[in-house]
Task: structure prediction
Amino acid sequence: MADTKREIERKYEGPPAGGDAPLPDLTDVPGVSRVIDKGVAELDATYYDTADQRLATAFLTLRRRTGGDDAGWHLKLPVSEGVRDEIRAPLSDTVPEELTALVRSRIREAELVPVVRLLSARDISHLVDASGTLLAEVSVDRVRAERLSGGAGSTEWTEIEVELADDGDPAFLDKVEKKLRKAGLKRSASASKLAKALDDTAPRKSAHPEKAEKAERAEKAGKAEKGGKAGATDKVADASKATATAAKPGPPDSAPHTAGDHVLAYVRTQRDAIVELDPAVRRDVPDSVHRMRVATRRLRSTFRSYGKIFDRTVTDPIGVELKWLAAELGVDRDQEVLTEHLTATLDELPSDLVTGPVQARVSAWSGARRSGSRQRLIAVLDGKRYLDLLTALDTLVAGPPLLEAAAKKPEKVISKAVRKDFKKVAGLVGEALELPPGSERDLTMHDARKKAKRTRYAAEAATPALGKPAADLVKSMKSLQTLLGDHQDSVMVRGALRELATEAHEAGENAFTYGVLYGRQEQRAAAVEAALPGEWEPIEDKGAV
Result:
C-alpha cells in the first residue's frame, strides 16, 4: 500500500563535486540546541518518465530508490514552492500500479522508462531543540547522475538540502536559510536533483539549427514520396507528438490580444485544472472532486457561450463528454449534499417534534443510494472514454477550431457573448417572478440558476479582456446562483422527504416528523422566492458588460 508524506524542504547549491562543502555552525540558529551527526547514507535512485518527459515538465518525479531508511518507490507531487507530497510504495521491480494510476492523466498510454540514475552520498545531520525534538534534517549530498535515455553522459555536483521535520513550523526554515546565506550559500537554481540532471545531460542543440531543420524536411519529403505506410506513420507520429506537447504545461503565453486568445486561455486553464486534479481525486483529497467537476462545467459552458469563436461541430461532441464526466463526478457528491441538508434540517428540530427512528431511517436511506461511487469513479478515471476526452482537449488546445470572429477585438465579440447569456438569465428570472408558487416555478428557477452559472463562467473568461464590468458580473451571478441554489436544495430535500415519509408509513412508523420537515422546507423556498425580486432588481438595472 502507498502512503503519503508532506515534504517541506529547501535546496542550496554547494561547491563543485569533489570540493569541500562545510556547513556553518547551525547551533547558532534560534531554537537549535544541538546538531547531531547521523552519518552518511549511500542512495541509489532510478528516475522514470515518458520518452518525452511529461512528468518532469509537470514538475512530477517518480523514482525507485535503495539505501537510506525509506527505500522503495517515491512519487512526488508539487503542492507549492518548496512543498511536495511524497507518495511511497514498497520496493518492487516494476512501477507499482497505484503510482502509475496517479500519473495517468499525464502519461495516458505512454510507457514509463528509466531516464536518469542518481548515486548520492548523503551526509546527514539532525537539528534538535533543547528537549531533543527534531526540528529539521540537513544533508550534504554529493551526487553523480547518469543519463539512461533521451540524452547521454553524466554529471556531478554537491548540494545542501534542509527538510523540515513533520509538523514543524515552516518559519524555522527561514532561520536556517539566514545562517546559510551568511555562509555564502544560495538557493539551488534547479527545482530538483532530477531537473538538474536532465538539464546537464540533455542533447546539445545543433550549432547550425537551420541545417538540421533542412535535413529533417528533406527526410520527411523523401518518405512522403515513397507513400504508403511510411507517410501515414509519420502523420500519426506528428499528431501524437502534438498531443503529447499539448499535454505538457509550457512557458507562460504572451499577453492575449484577440477574442480567441482570451477565451482559449480560459479553456487552457480549465483543461490544466482537470489534469492536475486527477491525482487528488484518486487520493480522495477533500474538495478535489468538486473542483474537478467545476472545471468540466466551466469548459462545457465556455464552448456553448462562445460558439462564435469556436467551431461547435468540434466542441459540441467534446461538450457531450464533459457533461458525462461531470455527471460521474457528481454521483456521490449530490447524494452527500442532500444527506447533509436533511441531517442539518433534522438537527434544528426540537426533540419533541421528532417521532420515530427518523435519524436511523435517513442514514439507511442515504447509504442505500450510495453507489459504491469511489470504485466507480476510479474506474472512470482509468477508462478509455476519460483518457480520450483528455486527448481531445489537448488536441483542441494545440490546434483550436477558431472561427473568423476569434481574430477580432475582444471588447466586441466577448461582450456580445456575455450579454447574450445574461439576456437568457433575465428572461428566466422574469418568467419565474410571474409564475405562481408550484412545480413550474421551481423548474423555471432551476433553469435560471443553470443559466446564471453559465453567464458567470462566460464573465470569468471575459474578465481579463473587459476588466471590472465583467468581474462585477461574476460576483452578481455568483450571488444569484447561490440564492437560486438554496431554492433548488429545498426542492430536492422536499422530494427526499416525500420518499422517506412513504417508506416510514409502509414500515408502520409515525411520519409526523417528515411532514414538519417538509413544511420547513416550503418556508425556506418561499423565503427565497420573496427575496428574489430584491436580489434581481439591482442586477437587472446594472445589466451585463
About this structure: Strands lie at 3-13, 34-49, 61-66, 72-80, 83-89, 113-128, 134-147, 154-164, 186-187. The mean pLDDT is 89. The first helix runs from residue 54 to 57. The first strand starts at residue 3 and ends at 13.
